[in-house]
Amino acid sequence: MNKKILATSLAATxxxxxxxxxxxNPFTGEKQVSKTTQGAAIGAVGxxxxxxxxxxxRKALLLGAGIGALSGGLIGNYMDRQEAKLRxxxxxxxxxxxxxDNSLILNMPGNITFATDSSNVSSNFYPVLDSVALVLNEFKxxxxxxxxxxxxxxxxxxxxxLSKQRADSVSSYLASRDVSPERLLxxxxxxxxxxxxxxxxxxxxxxxxxxLVLTPIS
Length: 218
Description:
Elements: H1 3-18, E1 22-24, E2 31-33, H2 35-44, H3 56-64, H4 72-90, E3 96-100, E4 103-109, H5 110-113, H6 126-138, E5 142-149, H7 156-176, E6 184-190, H8 201-207, E7 209-216
Parallel strand pairs: 5-6
Antiparallel strand pairs: 1-2, 3-4, 4-7, 5-7
Helix pairs in contact: 1-2, 4-6
């Protein structure tokens, strides 16, 4: 799946979530996309589903690093357990966990992740990323795609560069916490995939974010 499909599908899913098309999990108290909304999201993007850019070279690197692939019958349960751990670790942090089919989406708002116009991860966000890394290291059989997003303020060139640098910063931090670099792939989306209007301060704030997409290696 190419970067544009990933970004378009991701934007559609998160936009539906932020517009209130979600339910509350009775066991965790967390918000999640409802089954009905998932179906609507698939229709909205022409049947495309979220997934990592899982080229053969990337998979070969992971297999060479000793990270095995999951068989079809085990994937659902594996992702269920990973989802539960992430929800428990991230409750109350400001980072949302959304389940879409067998992909997990972690949405990290820019205002808690980075200072304005900076690509350095805020030090007060380190414990949150430590919690994410803890789970990622327990569940090694997942690709981790990291996409940086900005609002439309400023030049396109600047925003593309800043969004990639922010994604790289999150990736580097996770790697420093022993997450295998072979699992990590970064994208700079700039302002290209907004989930809210850029005409208001609130909308621009929502658009500034870093998103992790976790997809099983199968």
